[in-house]
Amino acid sequence: MGFAGNVEPCFILPTVVAVNDSFLNQPRTSNKSNWMTQYSAGVMADLDFFVGDEALSKSRSSSSYNLQYPIKNGQVENWDAMERFWQQCIFNYLRCDPEDHYFLLTESPLTPPESREYTGEIMFETFNVPGLYIAVQPVLALAAGYTTSKCELTGVVVDVGDGATHVVPVAEGYVIGSSIKSIPISGKDVTLFVQQLMRERGENVPPEDSFEVARQVKEMYCYTCSDIVKEFNKHDKDPSKYIKHWKGVKPKTGAPYSCDIGYERFLGPEVFFNPEIYNSDFTTPLPAVIDKCIQTAPIDTRRALYKNIVLSGGSTMFKDFHRRLQRDLKKIVDARVQASEARLGGEIKVSVSLVFVVHFCADGSLAPWRAHVLILPLVPTIGSQRSQPSHSEICSMVWRISACFNSRVLYVVASIDMHNPSRFKQACHTKAEYEEYGASICRTNPVFKGMY
Predict the structure, then answer these.
(1) Quick count: other Cβ atoms within 10 Å of Cβ 400?
(2) Contacts of 363 (CB under 8 A, 6+ apart)
(3) What is the mean pLDDT of residues 417-443?
(4) Residues 6+ apart with CB under 8 A from 93
(5) 195 in Cβ contact with 312 (< 8 Å)
(6) Please, are residues 185 and 278 in contact by the beta-carbon 8 Å criterion?
(7) End-to-end CA distance of the chain, in Å?
(8) 297-335 burial by CB neighbour count: b if 16+ within 10 A, else e?
(9) CA dihedral 417, 418, 424, 428 (to 10 degrees)
(10) Given pLDDT bands bounded at 50, 70 and 90, which one contains residue 362?
């Protein structure tokens, strides 16, 4: 979250809320004094909560705080917790008056209209914002693929976040909604798989700290390999070269501990390419899902979609992830071309589609893993103009494209020039429209109203 025009987000927080439930465990009686006690306890419970990293530290230090995760698999499930999270973000972190700012929020491409309505109600009723625009994350990520003055608004966005993975085809800035694919494997599943591998091997990791250790191991040491068998042989042949060592401190006793990090370094990211090693219910590799997504899109867009596959989200930042994805996807396309030529008897030569995966984080930096937790209050007086960000800057692509004000990006958002604030306001849902028509104004998104 942060303010528009900033080079990077002001804050990056995990979407978690710690609520103090001890206030609510009061006996229910008809006594007036006890009723006042219960009322005061309810007020205190509404005020005594923490979000983000503060929430995680509070839950570790005190048993009276229970963690609530408002977002599950990319969708908001606990709206009370989500409202509390937004409240702390706006007033405690950004320290701004929401009535003075237009807000840009991002959403998952498969968000139901009812969720957008709830979001509009909270923003307009609770925070009294003057204007609101709800953008689709993959469309903003695709805008980060601009490397020339020519706008490439057609491509496939592979958005692998912490809780959800979506493959979204975009044609001329509009989402092809019927071809969106979603798979039940995401960054959190990689963390759980790493945790499972370390636990089965009997590593000396405290149970209460095992998930956090697995997450840090994933972010710091995991990489994508080209062949599992060769990688196993390399580790077995020279363990000292490939096995890493982790040192930590037990949170309860403060005693130091250490453990080894071995096969999970490459087996963690492998769940995207061989999901059967983790989930027996879903066995379709990510490259096959991307190919199926493109094949279900309109035929005149497929060649352009293969040429521009954009990776977005923290779990695409593993070393060589984009190379492995491009190699496996090219194998699928080449096999289809050969089968087609064999079926035609070699009479007609099929022109091969160019498969190209765009990977922005070439340096492998893993800093902005939670960059999709995004709230962007838009300052009405916008006049600054930024140059095109470099590849190393676009690690948190959704944020940067939201915050960078240039005409090409605004075409993606709503075909509006952001150098002109009055035109941007025309794209937003305003407080006056909400009061006249209700929350139904937030049900639809213009990027879904394409030609397909």
Answers:
(1) 25
(2) 392
(3) 77
(4) 1, 10, 11, 13
(5) no
(6) yes
(7) 33
(8) beeebbebbbbbbbbbbbbbbbbbbbebbbebbbebbee
(9) 110
(10) very low
Q: Could you tell me whether strands 165-171 and 375-378 are parallel, antiparallel, or unpaired per DSSP bridges?
A: unpaired
Q: By C-alpha distance, which of 64, 100, 72, 71 is closest to 86?
A: 71
Tokens, residue 34 = 């006890």
391: pLDDT strictly greater than 50: no
What does DSSP say about strands 357-358 and 309-312: parallel, antiparallel, or unpaired?
Answer: parallel
User: pLDDT at position 152, please?
Assistant: 66
Report the greatest alpha carbon distance in the chain. Answer: 91
The single-letter DSSP state of residue 221 is H
Q: Residue 142 and residue 173: Cα distance in Å, rounded?
A: 9
Collapse the DSSP code of 169 into the 3-class scheme (helix H, G, I; strand E, B; otherwise coil) and give the result. strand
**Per-residue burial over 200-223, b = 16 or more CB atoms within 10 Å of its CB, e = otherwise:** eeebebbeebbebbbbebbbebbe
In this structure, are residues 235 and 262 in contact, taking their beta carbons and an 8 Å threshold?
yes
> For 264-311, how does the pLDDT look when each residue is reduced to its tens digit (9 = 90+)?
999 999 999 999 999 888 899 999 999 999 999 999 999 989 988 988
Q: Are 175 and 448 in contact (CB under 8 A)?
A: yes
pLDDT band of residue 411 (cuts 50, 70, 90) is very low
Residues whose CB falls within 8 Å of the CB of residue 338, separated by 6 or more in sequence, listed in order: none
CA–CA distance, 152 with 171 (Å, rounded to integer)? 9
pLDDT band at 253 (very low <50, low <70, confident <90, very high): confident
Round to whole Å and give the CA distance between 112 and 126: 21
Cβ distance 155 to 128 under 8 Å?
A: no
Distance CA 259, CA 194 (A): 13
Q: Which of 7, 3, 244 has the alpha carbon at shortest distance from 100? A: 3
- Average confidence (pLDDT) over 180-206: 91
Helix (H) or strand (E) holding 139: helix 137-143
Residue found under tokens 């491409």 = 109
Q: How far is CA 300 from CA 4, 237, 295, 334, 450, in A?
A: 36, 50, 11, 19, 15
Mean pLDDT lowest for which of 22-36, 78-92, 135-149, 183-197? Answer: 22-36
Residues near 92 by beta carbon (within 8 Å), at least 6 away in sequence: none
Tell me if residue 40 falls in helix, strand or coil: helix
pLDDT top residue among 290 and 314: 290
Q: Are strands 49-51 and 17-20 parallel, antiparallel or unpaired?
A: antiparallel
